[in-house]
C-alpha cells in the first residue's frame, strides 16, 4: 500500500477469501508489505483461533501457525 508508506503509517486491510476473485486477492497480497493469516480450527473441541505470518518483506519471521488465546476480559495472547 504505497500511500501508507508515503505517510510512514501502518494500514491493516482485512480480506475474506472467496469474496473477491483470485486475481484481485493475489494483486492485493503482492502490493502488501506482509500477509498475516487467521483461521478458526473447528476440528478441536473447543474450536481454536490460529494466526501465522505468511509473508513479510525484509524481515525474518516464523511462519508456523500459533494459537490465539482469548481471556475472560477479552485480552488476546499468543500461545504455542
Structural features:
4-stranded antiparallel β-sheet; alpha+beta; 31% strand; 4 strands
Structural account:
The protein is of the alpha+beta class and 80 residues long. The chain has two domains: 1-32, no CATH class; 35-80, no CATH class. Helix content is 19%, strand content 31%. The protein is built from two helices and four strands. It has helices at residues 2-6, 22-31, and strands at 34-41, 48-56, 66-70, 76-78. The chain has a four-stranded antiparallel sheet with strand order 1-2-3-4, with no helix packed on it.
Q: What's the structural blueprint in terms of helices and strands?
A:
Layout: H1 2-6, H2 22-31, E1 34-41, E2 48-56, E3 66-70, E4 76-78
Antiparallel strand pairs: 1-2, 2-3, 3-4
Largest sheet: 4 strands, antiparallel
Compressed to H and E, one letter per element, the order equals: HHEEEE
Structural class: alpha+beta
Q: State the distance separating the first and last CA atoms.
A: 31 Å
